[in-house]
Design brief:
The chain has one domain: Four Helix Bundle (Hemerythrin (Met), subunit A), CATH 1.20.120. It is 72% helix and 0% strand.
Length: 180
């Protein structure tokens, strides 16, 4: 992987996401049915991110419990579900395609860069974990008992911000439907 591109992607992922978000708010064409269906998919992503945040002590120890027992990147998987759900709710195929391209172009190198960091940070522990747990798409099997969800970690990781942002977009789309 090109480390310069991965660094660029890590630095620009949030601003690019905001630009796409602005385009989404302007060009979305939601319907009530799309809002309900897409909102449900996005809600699964919000819940997954919340669950993952309750198991994550960044830079302190390797998260391997909760959703991390099924995928090494539940936060990014949750973000993908949120984006897919909101794209569906917004009713624009072009915006859905733009989200998919942005996610692949930006988050894939970020995931790989973070994986390199975790490998340096946790060494053989991470290597063993990576052999057991898939990178992105989850493998559902009974994991070994791990640590329990911690609300303290959820709040420390500020995951409530994802929920509030998701809720704000759904409310905006509902108003957009109402104004038609």
């Amino acid at each position: 992987m090109n480390s310069a591109y991965a660094a660029w992607a890590a630095r620009w992922r949030v601003p690019l996401g905001f630009l796409l978000g602005i385009a989404f708010l302007v060009f979305s064409r939601p319907t009530f049915e799309m809002l309900i269906a897409g909102g449900a998919v996005g809600a699964v992503g919000v819940a997954l991110r919340a669950y993952a945040a309750g198991h994550l002590a960044k830079n302190q120890k390797l998260a391997m419990s909760g959703p991390y027992a099924y995928t090494r990147n539940p936060l990014y998987l949750g973000s993908a579900l949120i984006g897919a759900g909101l794209a569906w709710a917004g009713g624009s195929g072009i915006l859905a395609l733009a989200f998919a391209v942005l996610f692949a172009a930006v988050y894939w190198p970020v995931i790989r860069r973070e994986e390199e960091y975790l490998r340096r940070q946790f060494g053989e522990v991470y290597d063993g974990y990576a052999k057991r747990v898939p990178l992105f798409l989850p493998r559902f099997r009974r994991p070994a008992d791990g640590e329990k969800f911690q609300w303290k970690q959820y709040w420390k990781n500020r995951e409530y911000e994802a929920f509030l942002g998701y809720l704000a977009v759904l409310i905006f789309l509902a108003f957009k439907i109402r104004l038609r």
